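user: Kindly work through both lines:
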Amino acid sequence: MMNKATFKNWLVLIKETAFRSSIGIIYVAIVLGAVFLGGEYLYGLLSFMALVTVYEIVDMEFKGKQWWKKAIYGAIGVLLWLVLYFFSLRVFLVLLFVIFFLWFFVYAVILKKEEEMFSSSYYMFFFLIMYVLVGLYIGIELYEQVGKMSFTSLLVMVWTFDVFSYVGGKTMGKTKLVPTISPGKTWEGFITGWLSLAILEVLLWISNIWKVEPYTLGISVILLAPVLLTGDLVESVVKRKAGVKDSGFIIPGHGGMWDRIDSTIAAFYIMWLLEYLEQVIGSVKM
């Protein structure tokens, strides 16, 4: 028989899940609407995600710093996204390192602030900006390469893993996965998410909705779940360092924008690589 404490925990879980689900449905509707409309709608949404995430990264990495420093680094993030979006990845990378060189020169030679120059926040900023912005840009390329249905399939995979990992962790979670980074994550939740994701991948492939080669399916079944988890953990490291629970507050019940797209960005990277692998193998066969 269910005791009072267990019943209360289940009631809290149901309420939390209902609220998160209602907000999640709105989020999913917006994203899928942009995907199926395509073009400037999807690109506009990904640009909005990029700029909000840039703000969240700057706010976390430079917590307690002067407002003008946040403004400068925020402007750098916005500039880099605009260059990436309107020009190319190559121009983006060149500009990123030119900015880095100029930043290094100003702090080391002009300001003589060697200690501040070697602060991990600054290096982390450049890494995270590159990681997030390039990831979202790759998402645009992936959409153009695989089409609406396969791109939507990938998003549904990411959401399935997130939902079942959360539910599995809440209902069965006992063994901590990486307590020093994310105390709430458990092996039980991760395995639940992994198995649910693997089943969905196979079903989407069998039904010919997700059109990939058999070897891509096999690699994805093995690697996609660990990659999605790692995308989540990368953000968790940053939040833990900043001493915050959420990256922001733009999505009620879910936290910030980065909280919502952390795994999606990781998925874009591995799926773009697998798509590229298919193209290489296809060209060799020809």
